[in-house]
Amino acid sequence: DAFVRASNEARAAFGNGSMFIEKYVDEPRHIEIQILADHHGNVIHLYERDCSVQRRHQKVVEMAPSFNLDPKIRQKLFDDAVKLCKHVGYRNAGTVEFMVDKQGDYYFLEVNPRVQVEHTVTEEVTGVDIVQSQILVAGGATLADLGFATQADVPPLNGFAIQCRVTSEDPEANFQPDSGRLEAYRVPGGPGIRMDGAVTTGNVMSSFYDSLLAKVIATAPTFPKAAQKMQRALGEFQIRGIKTNIPFLENVLRHPEFLAGDAKTSFIEKHARELFNFEGHGSLRSSKLLSYLADMQVNGPDHPGAVGPPPPARASPIVVPIPARSANRKLTGWRDVLVAQGPEGWAKAVRAHKGVLLTDTTMRDAHQSLLATRMRTIDMLKPAVATSHILANAGSLEVWGGATFDVALRFLHECPWTRLERLRELIPNVPFQMLLRGANAVGYTSYPDNAVNEFVAQAKKSGVDIFRVFDSLNYVDNLKFGIDSVRAAGGVAEATLCYTGDVSDPKRERYSLDYYMDMAEQLVDHGVHALAIKDMAGLLKPAASTMLVGALRKRFPEVVIHVHTHDSAGTAVATQLAAAAAGADIVDCCMDSMSGLTSQPSMGAIVNSLKGTELDTGIDPRAILPLSTYWEQVREVYSPFESNMKAVSSDVYQHEMPGGQYTNLKFQAASLGLGKEWDKICHAYAEANLALGDIVKVTPSSKVVGDLAQFMVQNSIPDQHSLVDKAETLSFPSSVVEYFQGYLGQPPAGFPEPLRSRVLKGKHTIQGRPGASLAPLDLDGLEYRLKEKWGAANISRKDVLSAAMYPKVFDEYISFALKYSNLVERLPTRAFLAPLDEDEEIEVEIAKGVSASIRFKAMGELQSNGKREVFFEANGVPRVVEVVDRQAEVAVGKKAVREKADLALLGSVGAPMAGTIIEVQVKTGAVVTAGQQLVIMSAMKMETAVCAPVAGTITQLAVEANDALDAGDLVVYIDTTKAGAIDGVVDPMVTMDSSSDDDMTGPSV
Predict the structure, then answer these.
(1) Which residues pair with 916 in a beta bridge?
(2) Is 114 considered catalytic here?
(3) Residue 371 vs residues 306, 375, 407, 408, 630: alpha-carbon distances, Å
(4) N or C terminus: which one in the chain shows less Cβ crowding within 10 Å?
(5) What pairs with residue 560 in β-bridges?
(6) List 11, 56, 91, 114, catalytic entry
(7) How far is CA 330 from the centre of its chain?
(8) Residue 846 CB: number of other CB atoms within 10 A?
């Protein structure tokens, strides 16, 4: 196949497909001699050029003279080149090319009877205009007429010159040619820099012509200085709209072997790992960012769950000042105690502290409960420094874990690890707290133990101090595993009693005071640093708070007690004050403007209530007001995610729905067409809970209840008894089936029968802790596959852990980041959520200390190809971005817009470059193996085989011969499920993803 393609390529280019077999020379240098000859038999040389840096035998970087070439070999090459040309009576300019092996032997390749692309470097070091000389000789001039009567008349070499060919090729995609409009094109200049090129801003790079944009030549007295000057020149290029090979060229120019003059023709292949490790260029990233903004202008925002009013125009939250009295003080806090004394010392210090400490949940559970978990990192970073001063005396800040991990990847297109680490940099003094779902980590199912252990260790390393470990069924075995994982990582292990029922009501026997005390006894005996009461629905009444906290304090006088609640029924402030009075060491709350309803109680109310008492929080009530004002203004920007809940509701005591689920289940119900059935869903939620065994309801068990409740409403099942009666004839949601199989663990009273048997219909069950029976996850193997799929430079070990938790979601996240760049994370939130207004201008931080000003100008009419042009100004420079109008299929016909391949799906195979299909080698229904050729494409004088990345069955063939494609257009879709495995390897994590969550928006049935 390779021989046929090469022959076809030769035939297309030269009209002759003949092939010649040459002697193989192992790792040679490619040295060529520049010749000038006249019509009278006179021949001179203009020294040599080194063209050893090649890819697919095509020169990439050239230099003159060759650095580090043996002078004796150099002279022999001169002599033989001149002798050969005299022997054949050669006339005019030409190049005699040789291969020099590692032993110093050399071999003749060919004579190129023309001016070479790389002639420029020879001109720069000799001062001879080769093009002019060729024209004069062709007109009859002799070499003597040109001033070269003998070889001695040739000017001596003057320094070193290096040439780089800047092309519209993507080195991250095997140098596939890229085509499109040059939205911006600025080139380097200055002494010692020569530019040969003819393109400019606005030109269109065609897929039917050579990909060369320009040649840049750098000249300096020494080779190292020439290389340094070339690096500077490459860095000064500003090219937008298409991909280029500049990042690759920069890596070549920095490589030690190149700088030593030892590069051979195998240089690129030999050092591929280093040369193809791209850190990312700001110019390319900013172009991708414009593509995101342009797409939103054309096609509108795509933010699931955004059902509320749009964000206000030109919203700009205040800058929170650092209090004057603390600005010059040394920044200290409870984290200093933790770092100095360790978790045990921290626990003793907290118990010895006289007042009550506060945990601020604003950056985690507050926005999870009120705004569908949609708070972005950029809005958390802005007040972070001020927060480190204003809340220096806080017990902790809850900033991570729970649904925030999933939503950051799935909907915000952000890396949750980056959020944690950037916040840690700005708030070094206050302990960070995360919500850890025990054996479920931050996911919705059980994971292999090794995956959870490494996740926890990395979270500790990245900045988490206190791990609130809970289990959605209060299953102690799962909790013990999570506690052990946290202790092994060196974190504070805060074991959690998830609260449901009512300990103050003697009729609620299942979740009585004795139940919680017995559970606490098991956890304390196992070894914890703190006990948390997690009241996720706001069911903990003040009297119950006094009873439970008081009993725990009496039984465990040395253990830190931490209380969390929601304000769904309006009693949360009273509950927390009662908890503090009964002996709680830390209580959760949040900024006033983010409090109430399904969120946590008001920090201002608690601080002011306890000020001047023995339980004083140590926080200045006046100092927190600017922070509250900031979050109030930020909350307005997230108006699309606000629920229509206007007041607290005591019906939570009937349905017991968690605060983080209440508003989001409304979104889910609306998306399923059940928006008008909300009262029925609340009733069904209570019935579903009873049917499942009156369980603890917190992620992921609350998702099971919510899914079943919506299922009951959709199927007109009024109560738990009717559900049991019909169960054998129903197909239940997968979350319900997996719950009954035991994938979440064991509920306190066991699984209810006969419902369990009728739901499972003979499916297997898990006894004991699910993670204990799971085989270890091959994280190293997962890392290898991710790097193979997305590129080594784009995958870190933290990404591997993200993919282990959410395989499908991570693929979607990385696909989005590669398409639009991670600069989307830095967009102002209004610009992220909604299209810019005409002439609206935003500032985006491209790099530390470097900002770009982007102004939207206009959007063009629909073109015949189904695209629209969107016009911006970036730092005052006009930019144009073409975007496919996804409504164009209706407007101009389906063939106007081709379907794009989905980067997140291995079986979705896209065109690697713009070009023409010249041969289709498969049919719909064909079974293919990994690596099998699918189609042959031609672009820019190069034929390329598009091969199957995985084994499977062709279920969609989207092209035929002579079709013209853009890069990324769908070629075929391969159904991998019919092949049994991907590349012969079964990924143990492929079923561990979830498309929905009760803590964020998305259909659940």
Answers:
(1) 938, 964
(2) yes
(3) 10, 7, 12, 13, 16
(4) N
(5) 530
(6) 114
(7) 36
(8) 18
